[in-house]
């Protein structure tokens, strides 16, 4: 019985609270809303704080308090982990108010919000590129900022993700047995990220893609493509002579070399 009464009491209090908040939102007393927005913010009710900051943003825009309202509006969304809205409001504020005491922090949080929206490597990396661009501009404008160490850490993490994305995309073509497309993608990955941690595997897959493309080619294209296989073999084995794939690479080399020597013999006989 006591438990039921307590639950009813909580529900009633909740309704009363909601009713009071809705009355506050409908009020035209912007200074009261300003004060209450900060009260909600400081007790961790960021949803209500954000709603009130939204309500008073235009009323205080251009005033002494406008700068503060804009910053805490963005921060209220950030505290909710609503990084989409937060990135927009942070970006809007520092671009419009370059002289604001909050400008540096807003620029940092813009990049950080995009960083938080950066997905795993298999997915589209548009937010990753935006985060990198924002952070790079931040470092140029604020080389002595307290956020520099964090920014450099996030940049390194996101660049690693782009390396992985490039590798996975190239490998996907190989896995799908689209060897012509795989050769292009593998070469692009190596050109874009020459220091990639996947370099050995990429070069091996490039050799294997070249070999399999030659093997499955029409007779008129085999010679040219087996010659490319030899070129890829020498590049791979020259860089990774102790690779665990060295034996397999040797077999592909021997098959390509044997084919080309046969062709030379046939030409001599003619």
Separate helix tally: 12
Shape estimate: elongated
Biggest sheet architecture:
none
Order of helices and strands: HHHHHHHHHHHH
Multimeric organization? single chain
Mean pLDDT: 92
* Unreliable residue runs: 5-14
Percent in strands: under 5%
Specify the structural class.
Answer: mainly alpha
Radius of gyration: 30 Å
Helix content: over 70%
In total, how many beta strands?
A: 0
Q: How far is it from the N-terminal to the C-terminal residue, by CA?
A: 105 Å
Which features would summarize this protein structure in a list?
270 residues
Could you explain the architecture of this structure?
The chain is an all-alpha fold and 270 residues long. It contains twelve helices and no strands. It has helices spanning 2-26, 30-42, 46-60, 66-79, 83-96, 103-116, 126-141, 148-175, 179-192, 199-215, 219-239, 246-269. Helix 3 (46-60) runs antiparallel to helix 4 and helix 11 (219-239) packs across helix 12 (246-269). The protein is elongated, with a radius of gyration of 30 Å. The termini are far apart. Mean pLDDT is 92; it is low at 5-14.
